[in-house]
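Hey forum,

I'm writing up a methods section and want to include a predicted complex as supplementary material. The small molecule is thiamine diphosphate. I've pasted the protein sequence and the SMILES. Can someone with a working setup run it? I'll credit the forum in the acknowledgements.
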Amino acid sequence: MIDFSPPLVQLLSLDGERISRPDFDPWVSDLDGPALLALYRDMVVVRRIDTEATALQRQGELGLWPPLLGQEAAQVGSARALRNDDFVFPSYRENAVAYCRGVQLTDIVRVWRGNAQSGWDPYTVNMATPAIIIGAQTLHATGWALGAQRDEVDSVAITYFGDGATSEGDVNEALIFAASFQAPVIFFCQNNHWAISEPVGVQAHRNIADRAPGFGIPSLRIDGNDVIAVLAATRIALDRARAGDGPTFIEAVTYRMGPHTTADDPTRYRDPAELAEWKTRDPLVRLHRLLTKLGEITPEVEAATQALADAAAAELRAGCIGMPDPEPLSVFDHVYATPNATLERQRTDYAGYLTSFGSSDQPGEGR
Amino acid sequence: MIDFSPPLVQLLSLDGERISRPDFDPWVSDLDGPALLALYRDMVVVRRIDTEATALQRQGELGLWPPLLGQEAAQVGSARALRNDDFVFPSYRENAVAYCRGVQLTDIVRVWRGNAQSGWDPYTVNMATPAIIIGAQTLHATGWALGAQRDEVDSVAITYFGDGATSEGDVNEALIFAASFQAPVIFFCQNNHWAISEPVGVQAHRNIADRAPGFGIPSLRIDGNDVIAVLAATRIALDRARAGDGPTFIEAVTYRMGPHTTADDPTRYRDPAELAEWKTRDPLVRLHRLLTKLGEITPEVEAATQALADAAAAELRAGCIGMPDPEPLSVFDHVYATPNATLERQRTDYAGYLTSFGSSDQPGEGR
Amino acid sequence: MTTLMTPSIVSTVPGLNAPQPSPLSETTTLTVAKAINEGLRQAMLDDPKVVLLGEDIGALGGVFRVTSDLLAQFGARRVIDTPLAESAIIGTAVGLAYRGYRPVCEIQFDGFIFPGFDQIVSQVAKFHYRTQGAVRMPITIRVPFGGGIGAAEHHSESPEAYFTHTSGLRVIAVSNAQDAYSLIRQAIASDDPVLYFEPKRRYHVKGEVVPELGAPMEQAVIVRPGTDVTLLTYGALVSTARDAALAAADEGVSIEVIDLRSLSPVDYAVVEASVRKTGRLVVTHEAAQSGGLGGEIIATVTERCFSYLESAPVRVTGFDVPYPPAKLESHHLPDLDRILDGVDRVMGRR
Amino acid sequence: MTTLMTPSIVSTVPGLNAPQPSPLSETTTLTVAKAINEGLRQAMLDDPKVVLLGEDIGALGGVFRVTSDLLAQFGARRVIDTPLAESAIIGTAVGLAYRGYRPVCEIQFDGFIFPGFDQIVSQVAKFHYRTQGAVRMPITIRVPFGGGIGAAEHHSESPEAYFTHTSGLRVIAVSNAQDAYSLIRQAIASDDPVLYFEPKRRYHVKGEVVPELGAPMEQAVIVRPGTDVTLLTYGALVSTARDAALAAADEGVSIEVIDLRSLSPVDYAVVEASVRKTGRLVVTHEAAQSGGLGGEIIATVTERCFSYLESAPVRVTGFDVPYPPAKLESHHLPDLDRILDGVDRVMGRR
Ligand SMILES: Cc1ncc(C[n+]2csc(CCOP(=O)(O)OP(=O)(O)O)c2C)c(N)n1
Ligand SMILES: Cc1ncc(C[n+]2csc(CCOP(=O)(O)OP(=O)(O)O)c2C)c(N)n1
Ligand SMILES: [Mg+2]
Ligand SMILES: [Mg+2]
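Reply by user p_vandermeer:
Happy to help. Structure tokens for the complex are below, copy them as they are.
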């Protein structure tokens, strides 16, 4: 039996000790050395991708990038618990989740380069593209789960959102709908302590995980920098949903070690000591310590992991820089699924306008 | 010390016995026979007003009326706990609260007759006029409370809303803001078991009062048909707010014995047995029993109460029927506090249009 | 107190064992409300992915009874009484659409669409564009709209222009029972999201309904041909406009009345042809004048038919005021006389 | 893990002991963002009932730094970092207004105003009318708007027409540092609610600012006089329009450029006088064409100045598409060339 209102659940100590908990251990009993190493590899790769994307932004190749630095365990641990037929409704920061779902690296940055409003076809990886209106996606996940329920399949929706998002009406309404219909949906809140410049205390006077039970949704509060705890919690929630027991809320307590986005300057509002303290809880370091104890870390493993990460970074960079610009007239594409006379007229007019410029005489340059 | 998560608080049994509770009793120690009789008188009058208004609607004198039948204790008990300088933000059903605040009876029905969008000047009685967008007023109350907090006065905002309203994003956001800023506001939820045709189970899988603690707001779940419990709970919440201890949530468990409004037909969705059962919990009957035991009910008292109620009904009827229709051009009044050229032009044009009709040739009659 | 908490969503459905009505099979006289009801029923029979969401749409059949008996026929998995939250009604419909459903949302009254506005404008309208066509939003949002029923605040709004200004949405307003039936079916079958506005004050007006889809919903219809003035409208005012045309005919003015039906996109082929013929345009709607659909249509017609215009197009609309109290609504809503006054103006008689 | 929960709202304010800047006292060169900042500061000094609410407006000074240093100067009781919920930002402002405050809400980006739409349209806009003037709503809602900054979705919207169609609101859009300063002060001082749109992509453009209130905010301003064509716009496009007028002058076309400033009500006195003079009207805005402010203005001008029009008024606007990705925004936003193309069309040169 799981106790749904414990204090922070931790299965991996800061020193890399596996903390045994009879209620959670059965859910991660398959995590042998190689399995843990696979999680570690994911985390190293996504951190490397994150660093590379930040660099690409600094070099002007991306318009913006929302780093996930510090949140690798929360994202990898939860994403790796999912089945292919589960469906992810993320916010804008779940790039590690996207990686785990098999999204192409180029597709991850497509949005941030400004080439498209979404980088991939959600149905190919069963993951929606980034949602920018805070909290809106939690309702989409709940609706999808209502669909799965009606289809009588045991697929589960999982939605990611931040601590700040919990203040939006939409997120609360999603909890209400999910509870009312006992929808198979997981509310995965990454409490990274900040909503841009606002500390989590602005949003909530109690632990965020305390909110859901009042709606009739059991919740777990886990150490979000502990990939084992995250994996276990997500599996528990998935199992409940598949069994028809309805929604679960998970608060993964973690920390946004970087800026909100590359456009942000946290020095304006954040005490450096806080960041320093959280560095001691780095999710990668912790798992590395455990793996070292387990004897999984050899120089070869280190080198192979690094190579994998570097290859990913190189792929990302090449894909990003090589991305062709969209065609001008594609601005009119896909507004509707069916023909629309008003819009077609605008397209025709604009096409005519464009061709009125000679090749040397480009629009947008003045004349 | 008050326990903020008890089961239903009841201080007056169905048989009219005063149930003693050491935690609540001190808050109603002043309730001697005459004080209880005064509450009873209020409840008889507001029920009579309610019946009269329903009759006026049936006779075509009102467009609509939202009866409060069954909710007299919840409204009178809470309203009578307030100070004049507290401010009420009601929904559309708080006509008993309006009565207790001193709103003129004619003003109560002004809206429902269609003469105006609000019946009175909120500042004369410190009560806002009815709010129809479900839940919106809870944010107004919270904002007002932020103002009171800034003014460093100990006035308190109280907002009324239904069980259905708890599903709206706005109500949840109000709880979040109130908790975040520890605003002096009372969330008074009348759980009357129905939101038009939807039973409360559609909105909430747990007791509504269970929701607030997760937001960091203490809550009380009280028998809303027990005027003594309602008064006690409201006083406790007021006291907390005045002391700077922030918001309190009160769930008053009651029952909508009538239709949602005069336009509604509850036989389409409600089991008559449920209504029958709730009739045994009638708030007036219960208090009458206690008063009888206390020897407060004499034939003279009965007659005087009835006379008071009948006089109120007569005043209401006369005021309603005698209400002058608004002037045609007042349709343009008060859109803005400052002059507006576009609107002035519309007013002038329409005034000209109206005068183009002779006295026998009225607009709106065809020609 | 056993009934203090009702344990779960509606479990016993009144009438669940009642005989299932068969769908419309021949010409029948129906009210507008019943015609929509029949259209919904047919759409649900045609496609098991059609689900209805809304407040009080189940046992009650909606406050206007438009969904009457559908819960009994299709069950609570397809006729979903939701918690009282419009953003969630729309937002979960988005998720259902994501999973291949065709949700039909009922917004109880026009004024209650605004809590769901964000999900409509930022999600429903944008998803197809956002995902380059990968994710479709075949969502129909039904909205009883307009005034004239003596209602309290927020129950008489005409919010259509907010949606006609929102790229990615289609907007329909129906005026009669036949269109009510045909166009709700077309709206539900559309792969694009549709705001479907229902002429609230004419819900009880009867008309003959043929169980057919009829002309595509984006086509405007000439309700009454004429040669002097083009009178454009939609929804409940179509009937008033027709009456105005009759009255004007007595005074020797021939009015061509057009029922737009589709407010986005507007069928400018029909509108332009008419204005080229008549040279005079009056648009009437209940919504406030500033920023209303009338201005948009006049601007477009002026752009496209400038040299055909005999006089400046005229608007007869609600004023730029919040919807007034019931006793004043007759001084806000366009009526026969105000429309005729507009006709006089466009004819240069005033 | 002591810092797992931050106990309460910002208690230690960086810079709280910094020297308090004195308000603007003489002509100064400021960016648009800084001019608004100075206007806010002055308004807060003038009236203790002015409070600011918004996301990240405190220690961070807002994502555009428009509220920089105001927390330090006025404290957390007047510069309120709110939880992340737009409906509540507007809704609590309503309550504050109820209690006699003059709240100034910051909406972080244009696209995030929609979760607060209901409170704006159904509450802020209607309260004064609803209560027959008893309850005033002197609320200012600041919205950085428009595109051209290469941003992600929902960060480049032009939602002004939703508000100009909403009776009870005033709508302002500023184009330069001086107006930014003067009109934010006027907006805050207004007893009516004001949507105050800030030209996001020109936040960093500098201009001279005199610490005066200037002309009333409802007045349009002729930015550059001309005789052949009236070119109407507002916000960030005013500067593009001025450039277009310069370019057109080279080709012998004299354009009168009008900065509307007030989008609701529109200053038709100035607009009509100009069109009567030029006989030709071009309106340009970034918002989608259908239902945009351009159509409204063209319809009104056509009604009022029909016989003065030499040719059909022309719109140069964003297309009827959701705001496109950054790499396509140059193909959506009106620019110099598209405006000149519009001028050619209104001149009958195409
Ligand atoms: C409706 C809405 N309001 C405001 C914003 C601007 N905004 C973007 S991210 C953000 C903070 C979100 O914080 P949180 O939910 O904790 O997620 P995190 O960024 O920490 O992952 C804000 C205010 C937005 N995107 N949408
Ligand atoms: C935003 C909004 N949505 C829908 C409605 C229609 N409506 C009016 S009352 C009501 C039910 C409210 O139920 P509850 O909150 O329990 O209050 P009660 O009527 O029982 O007092 C509904 C759905 C509304 N007024 N506002
Ligand atoms: Mg966060
Ligand atoms: Mg109720």
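Some notes you might quote in the supplement: The longest helix of chain B spans residues 33-58. The pocket of magnesium ion (ligand 4) is lined by residues B 162-164, 192, 194-195 (CB under 6 Å).
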